[in-house]
Each structure stands twice: as structure tokens, then as C-alpha cells.
């Protein structure tokens, strides 16, 4: 961990030096010519098997919604898309310890379970287009998928194309009770000494037409909700749209109705042609990378630089919430909160020297 921190600091120094040097000595009329798709493709993240857990997972995000893809630990032969939303926080009284009363909360997982047994798999994070692509071969056929989080919409998009019996692959959303991540981690160890955690109420599932979802009510009287739907094209491609709505985060007062907001977001998303959604998403990312161009004469260090920029662009966008210790992703942890200290300072220092002060 310490070595990684030193390496990151050294990298920041190199990039800061090169960018400032460029500003000082750049001549009028100098044009940067980079074949960005092929250049960034050299730094793409590639897996030759399904990532085994959160720490190995492939991730996408737009600063408010995100998902990390890895092998599910409950269902065998299942790919898990762990769902996160940056502003889904509990907000109990100040008398409650912060990690149990004002902490990030779990949402749930989108699950892709092939019909046959997984034989082989490949995943790739396309940095330039900010999406995950994967191929899974099974004993019953194959599955090809891509997943991205559009920059302009509060949606997570999963598109799946199947061959053979994998047309019957199961895709479902598994809601998770809104327990404190610290409680989840501490429970197997006997809990927090001298403290009794009070659970939030159980989630409630709903369905409106072809839109399914779950509403999670909180002890403070408000709620957040997840909604998702699936469409199938004539060619057999399955498109899943998923969103998470959090009315309290917008109004800062107890208010029911997040399910209504989630349903409206899905309905609006269904009206946008996928090509249009993809175009605006890619336009944002294609403007993001060139602003930070730096050439580093060491391949591994250069890859590290571009992957970190991808991570930061996924973790937040202009006018999105500050990056906490999770970003728009989720995992059980003892530290599921936001601390406005060195954690934020080091994270945002990178933005300043890479031309992303917005």
C-alpha cells in the first residue's frame, strides 16, 4: 500500500512537470496528433477469466451510478454486477456512530446466470469508450455482452447477445437490505462491542408493467429505489436498463416516492435510441482524455496513468457528488463514509494537474 502511494506521488510529479513544461514552451500552431482509439487500446484492462471478487473486478461509472463486475459468491456459475450510487447514504441522528448512522448503503446486484456451465471467458475494459465488453463460452452456447453507464443519463446499460441454449440465460436483480457495511463486516466477528445496530426496514419489491424494482425504506422515513427492465430485439439481443433513485439526496428532507422517480427514469431511457445514448456518452469521454495527454516513456507507468484517469472520470463528473471512499461503487467495509481530509485532498489533487478543475 505504501509503495503504491509513493509510486502514485512520483507519477503525479512526472505528469505535473510534463504538463507544466508543455504550457511553458508550447509554440503557436502546435497540434497534438494522436490516434486515440488505438493509443488507449494499448492500456485497456483485459481478463482471461471472470474476475473472482470486487478487488479484481471490471468497473464502469458516471459519477453518480456505477457497477463492478465479478464472480458472484452466492450463486455458482453467475456473473455479478454490483450496483452502487454515490449519494445513497443513511442519515440517522448525530448520536448514532457515523459508520452506523451516516454511511453508504448497499443496493443489490444484477446477476447474469448462463444456462450451461461456463467453460471460458474474456473481459475487456475499453478505456476510450468507457465500457466493459465480455465473451463467455458455456456448455450450452455463448454469451457476448457489453456494459456502460451513460454520461448523460442516470442509467446502467447491459446488452447481451446469445447463441445456442444461452438464449435462456437468466438475468435478474437481487436487492440487498440496507444494513451498514460496517455492520456487515463486523457481524461475523460478534459485532461492535457496546453497540447494538438497529436495522432499516425490509425492502419491498414492485412491478409496473415490464418494469421491476425494489424500494428500500429507511428508519428516517424516506427511501431509495432500484428499477430495471429488459427489452429483446428482433435479432435476440437483450438490453437491460437499470437505475437507482434517491429522492432524499435531491431534497434533503424525508420523502417517499423514489420508486416513482426510478420508474420515470427507466421510461425516459426507453425513449432514447441506444445509438444516441452511446454517442453522447462517448463524446464526453472523447473530450475528457485529450485534455490530459502526457507521454511517459515507461509502458507500465503510462498504463497506470491512463487507468487512474479512467477511474477518476468514472468516479465523478462535473456537478456530481464528491468522491468518498467508495466512489459510485459498493462493497462491505469498515470505512463506508466520506471524510473531508487527506482522502479527498489526494484524490482531487490529480484533477488539478490534468486539466480537469471543472
Put the structure in a nutshell.
The chain is an alpha+beta fold and 358 residues long. The protein has helices spanning 2-25, 36-41, 98-101, 181-186, 247-251, 258-270, 274-288, 299-315, 342-353, and strands spanning 45-47, 58-61, 65-71, 79-85, 108-113, 118-126, 131-138, 141-148, 156-164, 170-175, 204-208, 211-217, 223-232, 238-245.
Per-chain topology:
Layout: H1 2-25, H2 36-41, E1 45-47, E2 58-61, E3 65-71, E4 79-85, H3 98-101, E5 108-113, E6 118-126, E7 131-138, E8 141-148, E9 156-164, E10 170-175, H4 181-186, E11 204-208, E12 211-217, E13 223-232, E14 238-245, H5 247-251, H6 258-270, H7 274-288, H8 299-315, H9 342-353
Antiparallel strand pairs: 1-6, 2-3, 3-4, 4-5, 5-10, 6-7, 7-8, 8-9, 9-14, 11-12, 12-13, 13-14
Multimerization status: single chain
Number of helices: 9
Main beta-sheet annotation = 9 strands, antiparallel
Name the average pLDDT.
91
End-to-end Cα distance:
29 Å
The counted number of beta strands is: 14
Structural class of the helix and strand makeup?
alpha+beta
Strand order of the largest sheet: 1-6-7-8-9-14-13-12-11
Shape: globular
The proportion of residues in beta strands is 25-35%
Low-confidence residue ranges: 1-7, 17-26
N-to-C series of helices and strands: HHEEEEHEEEEEEHEEEEHHHHH
Helical proportion? 25-40%
Radius of gyration: 21 Å
How would you characterize this protein structure?
The chain contains nine helices and 14 strands. It is α+β, with helices and mostly antiparallel strands. A hairpin with a 5-residue loop joins β12 (211-217) and β13. The protein starts with a helix and ends in a 5-residue tail after the last helix. Residues 1-7 and 17-26 have low confidence and may be disordered.
Amino acid at each position: 500500500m505504501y509503495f503504491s502511494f509513493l509510486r502514485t506521488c512520483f507519477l503525479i510529479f512526472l505528469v505535473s512537470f510534463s504538463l507544466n513544461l508543455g504550457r511553458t514552451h508550447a509554440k503557436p500552431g502546435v497540434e497534438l496528433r494522436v490516434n486515440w482509439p488505438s493509443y488507449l487500446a494499448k492500456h485497456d484492462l483485459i481478463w482471461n477469466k471472470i474476475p473472482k471478487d470486487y478487488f479484481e473486478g471490471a468497473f464502469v461509472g458516471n459519477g453518480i451510478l456505477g457497477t463492478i463486475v465479478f464472480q458472484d459468491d452466492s450463486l455458482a456459475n453467475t456473473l455479478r454486477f454490483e450496483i452502487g450510487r454515490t449519494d445513497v447514504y443513511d442519515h440517522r441522528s448525530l448520536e448514532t456512530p457515523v459508520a452506523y448512522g451516516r454511511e453508504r448503503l448497499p443496493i443489490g446486484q444484477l446477476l447474469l446466470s448462463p444456462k450451461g456451465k461456463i467453460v471460458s471467458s474474456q473481459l475487456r475494459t475499453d478505456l476510450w469508450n468507457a465500457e466493459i465488453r465480455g465473451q463467455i463460452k458455456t456448455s450450452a452456447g455463448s454469451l457476448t455482452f457489453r456494459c456502460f453507464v451513460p454520461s448523460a443519463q442516470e442509467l446502467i446499460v447491459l446488452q447481451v447477445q446469445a447463441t445456442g441454449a444461452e438464449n435462456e440465460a437468466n438475468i435478474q436483480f437481487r436487492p440487498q437490505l440496507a444494513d451498514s457495511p460496517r455492520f456487515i463486516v463486523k457481524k461475523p466477528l460478534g459485532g461492535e462491542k457496546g453497540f447494538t445496530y438497529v436495522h432499516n426496514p425490509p425492502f419491498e419489491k414492485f412491478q409496473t408493467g415490464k418494469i421491476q424494482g425494489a424500494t428500500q425504506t429507511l428508519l428516517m422515513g424516506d427511501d431509495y429505489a432500484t428499477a430495471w427492465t429488459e427489452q429483446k430485439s428482433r435479432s435476440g439481443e437483450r438490453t437491460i436498463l437499470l437505475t437507482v433513485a434517491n429522492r432524499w439526496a435531491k431534497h434533503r428532507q424525508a420523502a417517499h416516492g423514489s420508486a416513482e422517480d426510478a420508474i420515470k427514469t427507466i421510461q425516459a431511457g426507453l425513449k432514447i435510441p441506444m445509438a444516441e445514448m452511446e454517442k453522447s456518452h462517448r463524446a464526453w469521454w472523447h473530450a475528457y482524455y485529450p485534455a490530459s495527454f502526457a507521454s511517459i516513456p515507461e509502458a507500465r507507468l503510462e498504463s497506470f496513468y491512463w487507468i487512474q484517469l479512467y477511474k477518476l472520470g468514472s468516479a465523478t463528473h462535473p456537478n456530481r457528488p464528491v468522491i468518498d471512499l467508495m466512489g459510485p461503487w459498493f462493497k462491505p467495509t469498515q470505512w463506508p463514509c466520506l471524510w473531508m481530509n487527506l482522502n479527498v485532498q489526494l484524490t482531487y489533487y490529480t484533477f488539478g494537474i490534468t486539466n480537469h478543475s471543472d
